[in-house]
Fold this protein.
Amino acid sequence: MSSLDVQEFIQQNRAVAQQVETFRGYWESDKHWEARREFILRNMNDFKAEQLDHLLSLSMVWSNNVFMGCRYSTELLEKVKEMAEGIVVEDAPVFKTRDEIIKNQQGR
């Protein structure tokens, strides 16, 4: 689902779009929200209504990893990356681990 597909889906499914908008955190920038909203919309059909909190949690894990560099278990990251396949985040920050920084420092 590209950005155009998301916009088209929102136009055609106003009730779902309005529901999804209520999931936005007040701290989320437009850039963060648009990416997380796409994650939610892409995966909504794979979760039952009673599993919605689980989907929202997974969307936050993905967003936190992409935008803030938060680290989680390998299994969890693989799952959310698979769920987010095809979502394009322009100008996403690049994070280095402490080990990478130290290795670069020692190489000088």
Summary: The radius of gyration is 16 Å. Residues 38 and 67 are 15 Å apart (CA to CA).
